[in-house]
């Protein structure tokens, strides 16, 4: 079997903390921007599906007491991979946010992972399958901040482009100071009851359509969201160029 040489073993100081973590891996997207002809989570890199890379990465963290994976409706191939890792596979929704809600609602049905606490989780890490090369250190940075009492934590990297806001006619309306911008990754970590309350409020307010990440919900509730160090290895496989990068990096690494 191929190994992810970018992963290391679990950090005991995190694994032995007080929080009980559920990990949600959202993998129910179609991959329309990638245009590969398969659901994106089934696309292979170095002979291994993106979902398998992602779940090996999660396992290596030693954090997940419950593991929930969202899959496209009727996707038996992805369900089988999820189950190999002891995860509960649930059918995702029409949007990423709807998939996250489906997974959150299933946490208490997920089996406890071997060797982990069987207590009910009180924290959750929500991770994109499309960021399947995220290193253990990024998971641990998020988990550690939750262990320290934070309620919402996101991994970020600096923005390297100048970013403009535009009006509806495509004229520039502003240039935010780049030093204050961050590019946001996953896993995003939350106190579980806080994220459940945030999604319930968003649903009441009809915000679901405009949600592009989970931390936005905490922001709308006035909950401070802490940024911790992400990683350039956590890039999201969205386009053909991203897949080419992944293959260049990992097919070489594993050959
Ligand atoms: N209805 C959806 C949409 C997305 N996702 C997941 O959310 C993550 C981020 O989404 P994205 O990278 O945009 O994936 P796709 O929706 O598959 O891509 P596209 O928008 O190009 O179709 C992915 O791991 C994807 O599988 C999901 O679980 N359910
Ligand atoms: C959650 C996310 O990965 C943070 O950058 C991103 O917002 C997902 O966006 P997508 O369009 O659903 O891929």
TrEMBL record:
Residue ranges of the TM segments: none
InterPro entries: IspD (IPR001228), IspD/TarI (IPR034683), IspD/TarI_cytidylyltransf_bact (IPR050088), Nucleotide-diphossugar_trans (IPR029044)
UniProt key word Metal-binding: no
Molecular-function GO term, any one: 2-C-methyl-D-erythritol 4-phosphate cytidylyltransferase activity
GO biological process: isopentenyl diphosphate biosynthetic process, methylerythritol 4-phosphate pathway
Reactions catalysed according to its record: 2-C-methyl-D-erythritol 4-phosphate + CTP + H(+) = 4-CDP-2-C-methyl-D-erythritol + diphosphate
Coiled-coil residues: none
SUPFAM superfamilies: Nucleotide-diphospho-sugar transferases
Biological role: Catalyzes the formation of 4-diphosphocytidyl-2-C-methyl-D-erythritol from CTP and 2-C-methyl-D-erythritol 4-phosphate (MEP).
Name of the molecule in the record: 2-C-methyl-D-erythritol 4-phosphate cytidylyltransferase
Native organism: Rothia amarae
Underlying gene: ispD
